[in-house]
Write a structure and sequence with these properties.
single chain; alpha/beta; eight-stranded mixed sheet; two-stranded antiparallel sheet; 11 helices; globular
Length: about 325
């Protein structure tokens, strides 16, 4: 059986804050997706998950609460837990610039990997404590903002008792993601004492890979990859989304093409839950996660699926971003 982790990075936008957007509007747009008289953020996504009896994991960004206060974080955590879903830790280090008290003595970095071990540990500890103060169970899993973690991040997580990391994104290796291992990760792997749960990826055309992300891959590609993972007996699939995933590029209105894709994906996951059930990190046993060796071949899509997605996304850009 292949466990599916449907993960949603849930975060305020540092870019919007830098441009002068106030905290309330940032929350409304970036997390709740309230635009144009509709709501397309985490509440909408949770409603779709619940309608199809699926489980979601929400990686909630916590450092922004040291800028806007703990109530802003609680307003995000409460509905996720009330909806029966899981809260885990997410961090964007950009928020350090606006903290009243600098926790890293003026040192800066675009990703958590850019900091020394002690600074990383401090920032992670701050995030864990903020989520617990907001009412979440102590997180056991982490994802770095921009996937920008390193092996040092994993060591820091291990020292804090965090069991899982989900920052490894093959497509980002060599740029933001600095997690080093001896081969591409297709399966969970124990690295620096932490179980690394790699974001699932596939080859969409020769020499080019794509993550299994709601806005990046079509519903057909998601189903193809899921089938291939089940057939290869992979222990897990990790899908990525964001709280703002269903909005258009400037986040002023919904991208209904992506909303329909989300519905199609949820229906597909419900139909295949006997062989690939959605789950939470708290339900994953270490021995089950590491049951298979990190071997296997790259999953490859077909030119027809790739062309279909490119055409679909071009239409979405024309209708929802340009028009």
């Amino acid at each position: 059986m292949t466990a599916v982790l449907f993960t949603t990075d849930t975060e305020l936008s540092p870019a919007f804050h830098r441009r002068g957007m106030n905290a309330e509007e940032n929350l409304e747009v970036s997390i709740f997706g309230r635009v144009g008289g509709g709501e397309w953020g985490i509440a909408h996504q949770m409603a779709r998950l619940n309608e199809h009896r699926l489980k979601g994991v929400f990686f909630v960004e916590a450092l922004s609460s040291f800028v806007f206060g703990g109530d802003s974080l609680k307003r995000v955590v409460d509905p996720i837990l009330d909806g029966g879903h899981e809260v885990q830790l997410h961090i964007h280090t950009e928020w350090i610039d606006w903290m009243g008290k600098d926790p890293v003595a003026g040192r800066r970095g675009g990703n958590i990997a850019n900091f020394c071990f002690d600074d990383q540990r401090r920032l992670l500890e701050m995030g864990l404590e903020a989520l617990v103060d907001a009412g979440a169970p102590r997180p056991i899993a982490f994802r770095a903002g921009n996937y920008g973690a390193s092996n040092g991040t994993l060591r820091a997580l291990h020292s804090l008792g965090v069991r899982f990391d989900a920052s490894y994104n093959y497509v980002y290796l060599g740029t933001d993601c600095e997690i080093l291992c001896d081969r591409p990760l297709f399966h969970p792997a124990l690295i620096e004492g932490v179980i690394e749960m790699p974001i699932t990826f596939f080859e969409d055309y020769p020499g080019h890979c794509r993550p299994l992300q709601l806005a990046a891959a079509s519903a057909s590609e998601h189903e193809w990859v899921l089938r291939a993972c089940v057939a290869a007996h992979r222990p897990s699939i990790v899908i990525v989304s964001h709280g703002f995933e269903l909005l258009n590029r400037d986040r002023r209105r919904a991208n209904r093409l992506l909303a329909r894709r989300c519905d199609a994906m949820c229906a597909m996951l419900q139909a295949r839950r006997a062989e690939a059930p959605t789950t939470h990190f708290a339900s994953i046993a270490a021995d089950a996660a590491l049951a298979s060796e990190n071997r296997g071949a790259m999953i490859k899509s077909s030119p027809v699926r790739t062309f279909s997605r490119v055409a679909e996304q071009a239409l979405g850009t024309l209708v929802y971003d340009i028009a």
